Amino acid sequence: MQPTLATLKSRAVAALIALVFLLVAAPGHAQLRLDITQGVRDAVPIAVVPFGGQAEGGANDIAAVVANDLRMSGRFAPLERRDMVSRPTSGAEIRVEDWRLLKSDFIVVGRVEPDGDRLAVTFELHNVRTGASLLAQRLPSTEKGLRATAHRIADLVFERLTGIPGAFSTRIAYVAVDGKPPAQRYRLIVADADGFSPRTVLESREPIMSPAWSPDGQKLAYVSFESKVSAVYVQQLATGQRSRVSARAGINGAPAWSPDGRKLALTLSRDGNLDIYTLDLATQTLTRVTSDEAIDTEAEWSKDGQSLYFTSDRAGNAQVYQVRLDEARRAERVTFTNGYNARPRSSPDGKQLALVTLDRGGYRIGVMDLASRNLRVLTNARQDESPSFAPNGALVIYATREGGRGALAFASSDGAFQQRLSSDQGDVRDPAWQPFTTPR
Amino acid sequence: MKLMHVLAVAILSLTLAACSKPTKPDGTTAPPADSGAASSGLGGEGAAGAGAGASTSTALTPQQQALAAIQQKNVIYFDFDSSEIRSEFVPVVAEHAQYLVKYPTARVRLEGHTDERGSREYNIGLGERRAQTVRRALLAQGVADSQITTVSYGEERPAVEGSDEAAFAQNRRVELVHAQ
């Protein structure tokens, strides 16, 4: 991209803001932990044997990370360690008859070895029933990088066994709140998809909401009330550098990135009327998309970048609409089942929308197939919101309530199961799942 | 549970009253007696308060007294998914309007809120709609547009915690936050 005067200027401003605003990169608290809330039917039994060359039960226990990832996917039921009768660390050491007795269909073994001043992790995946070796790789790593290597192994195992790329190496962004009203503290946090390694990227006494990942997974757009009114910011995660991209009079909300990463759809208000606009980040050109007296908000781009899905109550209650970004800008209603449908989020393939739907008295997460317009309700609590698809489309992360506090949860997009990612402190909400950072 | 809510609301009102404590230059050093006077002045006995105040150096100005009086009721509550001002709050809005008309340099910030149900950004819209309803009511009663600012917090800043109807009802609100 050619830097224009406008981008140079906004970069200078961004650099200044970054200097003034020192962002905390200390390890956050509010660690998230996976709780199995419901047994998963048809989960594939798999044994992930503790890796050789490292102590069991440590923070970087590779097998534990891999087993947890696979469990989180809902498709696998890892064997408990106490049931393992041996600890093979290579394919040659596996006695398949032992693992057949334990009813494991697959087995993952491996070890960590020094590699010069670094480490190398070797792992193998075997089919217990046939004895066939399905995968064997050696991955370079470091002491600090062992968790990342473990997620990579989980990605590869998941892809080999399901045909779907694993998304365990990606991250999630969410908002954590502690303190009682009216004295609350808000933090924007980025953590690994399994909830580990939380890092606070912004902290404020005023609300923070609606984090949205850029398509390259390097930046977050979000809403912050730090100046006592809402404004939209874009923050580069690697450097902490951020810029305020919209602080117009009234509401500045609901940022959503265009698929090419060049524009943000935003909700702005004039005289209290919320409408959707697009903002070209390089040129600062603002284009109005909707003009209706209703609440129009929560825009989401279609995969081809040619239209926006959004929430509107123009028909009396909240429903999802689609507007084409052409001259006519005609909006067509997309949802018809249930009296409340809001916050549409596109699946990675663009074929489905996850949304909040009022289902039998509860606000729940639904997934709508855009071709058939069938809506499938995935969850069964009373206050579920903010769905966001995993980049492989297999899971939806969303916000729910548990014991009077906000918690995060996963549901499989086919509705087969839900699992909770609970926080050991504070209220957590507004999750957004990072896209794949490398093209696939 | 009910008691907790009442307490929470009482504490909140006190906090709000304290926050919007007049900070005029003529308040000088404002010893604790000043804020005490402001708080006890909430009893509504304006004449007595003024009489007592006249003999001391910490007298409240008429505007401060008027503000203290209307700040007893500075929250308008709404029905679920509604931005209509309920009849019981029409006089409350009128009192605030009268004050703002009488003191054209006074400013008010209308903070719109919703309960926690439904999606967050949509609730920002709903909170804004509530704030705008109150704004229009103030304008209709002669308040200048330049005296009013609005902000919507949606469900992000609840007045009370809780996921029951009692808590929801306390959280669906517009707070009128005054500055002189």
Individual helix count of chain B: 7
Largest contact between chains: A-B, 40 and 31 residues
CATH level 4 superfamily of the domain at 41-162 in chain A = TolB, N-terminal domain
- Average pLDDT of chain B, rounded to a whole number, is 77
- Beta-strand residue fraction of chain A: 35-45%
Radius of gyration of chain B: 17 Å
Please report the total strand number of chain A as a whole number. Answer: 30
Question: What's the alpha carbon Rg of chain A, rounded to whole Å?
Answer: 23 Å
E-strand count of chain B: 4
End-to-end C-alpha gap of chain A:
22 Å
How do the strands line up in the largest sheet of chain A?
1-29-28-27-26
Low-confidence stretches of chain B: 6-55
Helix content bin of chain A: 10-25%
Description:
The complex is a heterodimer of chains A (440) and B (180). In chain A, a hairpin with a 6-residue loop joins strand 11 (219-224) and strand 12 (231-236). Chain A is elongated. Mean pLDDT of chain A is 90; it is low at 1-29. A five-stranded antiparallel beta sheet of chain A has the order 1-29-28-27-26, with no helix packed on it. Chain A has a five-stranded mixed beta sheet with strand order 3-2-4-5-6, covered by helices on one side. Chain A has a four-stranded antiparallel beta sheet with strand order 9-8-7-30, with no helix packed on it. Chain A is built from four helices and 30 strands. With 440 residues, chain A is mainly beta. Chain B is of the alpha+beta class. Chain B has a domain at 71-179: 2-Layer Sandwich (60s Ribosomal Protein L30, Chain: A). Helix content of chain B is 48%, strand content 13%. Chain B has seven helices and four strands. Chain B has a four-stranded mixed beta sheet with strand order 1-4-2-3. In chain B, helix 6 (120-140) links the parallel strand 2 (107-113) and strand 3 (148-154). The longest helix of chain B is centred in the C-terminal third of the chain and has 21 residues, at 120-140. Chain B is globular and about 45 Å long. Chain B starts with a helix and ends with a strand. Mean pLDDT of chain B is 77; it is low at 6-55. Chain A binds chain B through residues 180-182, 184, 207, 209-210, 225, 228-230, 250-251, 253-254, 267, 269, 271-272, 274, 295, 297-298, 311, 313, 317-318, 340, 342-343, 356, 363, 382-383, 385-386, 401, 404, 429-430, and chain B through 12, 15, 81, 116-122, 124-126, 128-129, 131-132, 135, 150-154, 156-163.
